[in-house]
Each structure stands twice: as C-alpha cells, then as structure tokens.
Amino acid sequence: MWVRNAWYVAAWSHELEAGQVLARTIVDQPLALYRKRDGAVVVFEDRCCHRFAPLSMGRVEQDDLRCMYHGLKFAPDGRCIEIPGQPLIPQSAVVRRFPVVESGSWIWVWMGESDKADVASIPSSTRLGDPAYHMKAGQLDYAADYLLIDDNLLDLSHLSFAHEKTLGLDMPQWADERPRILPLERGLRVQRWLRGQPARSFMRRHGDSLDLWNTYDFLFPGVFLLRTSFYVAGTAERCKLGPPSEPPLFLRVDDQAVTPMTARTSRYFYAAGARSGDIDTDRVAKLYGVTEAAFHEDKSIIEAQQKLIDLDPGRRMLPTSLDAGPTQFRRIVQRLIDSESRPVA
Asked: Is 245 exposed, middle or buried (0-12, 13-18, 19+ CB in 10 A)?
C-alpha cells in the first residue's frame, strides 16, 4: 500500500523545459507535467478522459495542454475547453490535477487529497545555482522497492564496507559508531561524531586528522538532507560529543530524495557539494565523481538484494543494533499507511 497524502519529488526543475511535457510515475500513478507561460508547473493525471491516451504525448498550447490523439484541449485547472467538431463540452470532461510546488531545485507533487496538501511541510533543500554553494546533481533509477533505498540511507554503517574504496575509504568508524537518533514529524534526525579521521587533500593544512560532525534529517518518503562538518581534531571531545556550536572548517552538503514509482522501481535524486568559499568547481567535480561512484555501488547491491527478497518474500531478516534507524522509519511509514486506511468517522 502507498502513502498518498505526502509530497514526492517528481523531477529536477531543470528537467522540465518550456513547451515540454514530461511523463512521470509516482506510487503507480502516471503523471504529465508541463509549464505555463509564467513558468508555473501543472501536473495532470497522464490519461485523457476521452480514450485514455497519455497526455504526456500531447502538445502545450499557451497555458493549455492538447491531447494529440483526438485533439481535446485542457486548461491548467483540468477542464476540457475544446473538443474538435463538438461545440458542447460535457461537465465530466476533466482530468485530475495534482497540487505541485517548486522548492529548492525540485518539483514536488502531492499525490493525495488536495485539501490536505500543506506547502509548509515541504523540506527545505539547497537550490542548485545558489551562489553560497557549489553543487552538482544527478539521478538514478533502481529496480527495487524504495524502502530498501531508505534503509540504506538510514544506516550509514554500510559506508565502511560497501564503499570501502569511495566514501568509506579508511573510515571503519562508520560501522563502529552508533548514532543518536531523534524523532521528527514524519521522519528521523540522525547525528554522530567521527573522531580522528584522516585528513585528505587540501584539508591536510589543518592537521593529519580531523573530527567530523555528521547530521541528517530523513523525512518521508525518503528525503535525505545531510550536512557533514569538518573540525580540528579534539573538537568532538570539547563538545562532549554533542552538537558543535562553532563554525566548521569545511561544510559538505548532500541533498537527496527517493521517489517510489512502482512496487519495484524507484528514482533516486541527489546533489552533492560544499560551501562556495570552501571549494572550487574543479574540486566539487571530484567530490561529486566519488559520490556518484558510491551511489552506483549502492544500486548494484540493493537491486541484488531485491532479487533475493523476491525469491523468498516470507523469509525474515536478522536484525542487529545497526537497524535502529531503518526499523524506526518503517514504523513511521506503517503508521502513515494505517492512518490513511482508517475509516473516516
């Protein structure tokens, strides 16, 4: 079952160009996205009400969308305003429109009841092109349940093993240090110090080793907002392993979002970078290259994991202390599913 009363990332803003119609699928629902002349995004069910042809194969005309099967034209509110050769337009000639918001550099779509769409609940992410940061972005499609990707992001202990040559290079502490997990509305906050990490590249000027403060908010359906702050060695002890109060030497920024398309396909959006004062464009390209290589490592193992799960769906996994984050988040997901399936009084 799906949670429909939620905001899902449908696309990067730069993916949807003027005059283009973009096809997307979220929680088994086909969608058609296009922009009006003022740049505002419109999201329809990708199904003409006439003969059920995909509207994503249609044509943008001014602010309207025309189905290119038999020519019905729809206004941005979903009403049919033209049927070729038929002056009378039935009131039932409408397509469903979904609430949509552009925030950061993502296009967010509300898949549930329109009157419950709360724009204030959209998480704040870094806008690509913000002069305060140098960021690069990409996306990957997985042949896997979105919750397996969520599990991966909520348990970063895998960095020490799955990414031993990329993001987890010489960092066994990812597996050894248990994070502090705090509850959030529809998500979790995960925090940890990694002490005495080897300093690399230009960060060696601050010493041979550094302390890293790693904190992220993970929000339904899979919005991962990670900040990694680098400090001189000894800072973690000085802060008594609590959140730092001083500015970092270097701040890495990672914004990611997992969107379920179908039960066995998911799209993973990601951006990585740092403050513009900390890094130049050449170095951010290298940082992004290592990050993207690690994400392909994740994709390989998660898709292989999904195949084994499907061979024996009833077999239970063995829990360990590493599973605190994934376990708590799956309870949140189940609570959201149960709240939507509960009969309304």
From this structure: exposed
Per-residue tokens: 49: 């009400």
Q: Which domains does the chain have, with CATH numbers?
A: 7-121 (2.102.10.10), 133-336 (3.90.380.10)
Average of per-residue pLDDT across 103-130: 96
pTM higher than 0.85 for the full model? yes
DSSP string, 15-48: GS-TT--EEEEETTEEEEEEE-TTS-EEEEESS-
Q: Which helix (H) or strand (E) holds 164?
A: none
Q: Mind listing the pLDDT tens digit for each residue in 221-266?
A: 999 999 999 999 999 999 999 999 999 999 999 999 999 999 999 9
The rounded distance, in Å, linking the Cα atoms of 307 and 304 is 5
Residues whose CB is less than 8 angstroms from the CB of residue 335 and which lie 6 or more positions away in sequence, other chains included = none
Strand partners, 224: 218, 256
Distance CA 320, CA 207 (A): 36
Give the model confidence (pLDDT) of 267-315 as tens digits: 999 999 999 999 998 999 999 999 999 999 999 999 999 999 999 999 9
What would the two tokens of residue 310 be?
A: 């499907």
Please say if the pLDDT value at position 344 is more than 60: no
Q: What is the pLDDT of residue 343?
A: 65
Beta strands in 114-240 (DSSP E): 133-142, 180-184, 187-198, 209-219, 223-232
pLDDT band of 174, cuts 50, 70, 90: confident
Q: In whole angstroms, what is the distance from residue 100 CA to residue 268 CA?
A: 19
Residues 59, 67: Cα–Cα separation, whole Å? 7
Give yes or no for a contact between 40 and 33, defined as CB atoms under 8 angstroms apart. no
Sign, Cα dihedral of 95, 98, 103, 105 = negative
Q: Strand pairing of 7-12 and 106-110? A: antiparallel
Give residue 175's pLDDT: 85
The secondary element (H helix, E strand) that includes residue 286 is: helix 281-311
CA distance 60 to 65: 5
